[in-house]
Amino acid sequence: MNAPSKILNSMTELHRFLFCSSHGAHGQWLSSALRGAGIVLQESDRPALLQQRVMDLDAQVVLLDFSGDADPATSQEGGGGGITYATELARVLTRCMPAVPLVAVGSTTCPEGAVAALRAGVHEFIDMSRGADEALEVVRRVLEGVHTAPAAAPLRHGRFVVLLGVRPGVGCSTLSAHLTHMLQAHGIRSHGEAVAASAGASNAPDAPLASHAALLDLGLPAGDCSLYLNTQSDFNFAQAVLNLRRLDETLVHTAMGHHASGFVVLPLPRDLTEMRSVAHADALALTDRLRGFFDVTVADLGGFSNMAFLANLARAADEVWLVTDQSVGAIVSLASLLRELEDSEVPRGVMQLVVNRYDPRYGMAADQIARRFELPLCGVLPDRPVTLLAAANQGKLACETAPQDAYVRALKPLAERLSGPGSALPPQGRRWLGKLMRK
User: Fold this and answer.
1) pLDDT in tens, 335-383
2) 203 — pLDDT class (breaks 50, 70, 90)
């Protein structure tokens, strides 16, 4: 019952229900019962592959076969089926795609299926022995719940900061990881102080690990920030864009990966071809939405080669940090990147320079580089390879293993500035929508 792509593209106004089962007769029954609500697409494969199909088809509801029945036509083919299979699939989808509604399909003649569905966290149930009208009512109730419970309105309008490494290897990902960690620590500390002040206490109580900061790990090589942070996530940037309309506090804090300190890490997909389906406008809408959940969102775009995508995010940013070192190759790359950004209409006013791995013995001074390119000098970070590598080899950051190191001390005022009282912007301060409309 797999529909051809051209049929799917012509039926965007219909709801799409994905029935995960190898039982053909059950699929036919559901297609007939739910004809008035949408189209039923049937798939049977390993849970990891079905997770991708849910995203590819943009299914509004996933139906799981908890009937326990075996289809005589497919029972010898190794197709997906059975209560154990449905339970495993429910757990995978609940963990990786919590915003997608799940509905169990079964029968009262197999009560163990209904019990297994409840234990797997699936609370809606279609009883095939009760008739098509009840099945249609269940699905409509689920859809109504999705449509009448939109994502909560953002309570914050945090900053969006883009870090662009002028070429691979200048330390942009290392900087992004350390900066976000410091922003999170500053947010937790400020929250604790505010709670203590409001309570009139002399000492702040332990603050919860709320996510004050987010890191978009979009640099290349892919996943470097996540590697430095010793953080893994099954939910990536492309999936976040696909689930944009469902993005709320629950999705942010359950599906997205979190560092041990509490901040969110959103990486590139493992298969980078998935990014081809991410429209620039949707990526911008995602970054704008994230402002509502975090005080500061940092995007690591070091080494990212798609200039159109990069420039769109840079135009949306409150600040763009161009990260370079003192090498001849980096200086030449900085000049080239600046020309491309200006050609893409990224305003000079948001650009600042960060000279990383700095040592006065290497030659050109940081302020000379800034004057040469007419850029404000945002920060100068010393060359500390031993400290950074030793921390990375422990799966930690230098701010955790050596908080008094010169690199950490140089970065601290930059993080504090981003976390300061003027760090939040009102909605009208965001410029990307108008610029996008003029494109």
Assistant:
1) 999 999 999 999 999 999 999 999 999 988 999 999 999 999 999 999 9
2) very low
Please, what CATH class does the domain formed by 159-438 belong to? Answer: alpha beta
Q: Which of 350, 353, 367 is nearest to 323 (CA)?
A: 353
The share of the chain scoring above pLDDT 90, in percent, equals 41
Going by C-alpha positions, the residue among 258, 191, 221, 237 that lies closest to residue 419 is 191
Q: Where are the alpha helices (DSSP H) in 97-204?
A: 111-119, 132-147, 172-199
Q: Which CATH superfamily is domain 5-147 in?
A: Response regulator (3.40.50.2300)
pLDDT tens per residue across span 120-145? 878 788 989 888 888 998 888 888 77
Would you kindly state where each structural domain of the chain is located, as residue ranges?
A: 5-147, 159-438
Angle among Cα 382, 387, 390 to the nearest 5 degrees reads 150
- Residues facing 102 on adjacent strands: 62
The reply to whether 159-438 shares the fold of 5-147 is yes
Residue 207 clears pLDDT 50, i.e. is over it:
no
- Reference 50, options 8, 93, 107; nearest CA is 93
Q: Distance from CA of residue 59 to its chain's centroid?
A: 19
Kindly report the pTM of this predicted structure.
0.63
Amino acid 152: pLDDT: 47
Q: Residues with Cβ < 8 Å from 13, sequence gap 6 or more?
A: none
Please give the backbone phi and psi of residue 414, each rounded to the nearest 5 degrees, phi first. -70, -45
Peptide bond into 221 cis (omega under 30): yes
Q: Two tokens at 295? A: 């005080």
Residue reference for tokens 């003649």: 109
